[in-house]
Amino acid sequence: MLSQVMQDAINEQINNELFASYSYLSMSAWCEHQQFTGSARWMRMQSEEERRHALKLQDFLLARNCRVILQPLAQPVVDFESVSSIFEQALAQEQIVTSQIDKLYELAFQEKAFAALVELEWFITEQVEEEKAAREIVHKFNMVKDDPASLLDLDRELGERQAEEAGA
Ligand code: FEO
Fold it and tell me: Does residue 51 form part of some domain?
């Protein structure tokens, strides 16, 4: 059985992952409304990915015979300056999640929650991938700047994202 402090922290991370999902959904809606359909697709897939992260933690708690206590979700940002700024925010969001996972891992270490440590290793690896993906896209937007033709090309490229690319 996990300690109460560990259970609370994992429940909190479920909320963090669901908030990330909600936030990506909001970004996706903005992109779609602005006719950046490729970026919208990328963001929607990322939203689904974050939901799967929440479910992975939920399943872990249940497998350990612990309770899942879902919390209210905060409202995500709904207005953005530009499609490039959205990806900058996505990168910043991933960096925040990385620090949340690191803290959770540290807590699991202190609590000697060995099964949780193994579970969280998957998330640590995943965060490396997610930050890398977001960073590469931000870099591309920085190169393209405001050139409309290049922006459309980049948007098309983002729309080619495949589900399996994104991992679990
Ligand atoms: Fe589940 Fe992108 O953090």
Answer: yes
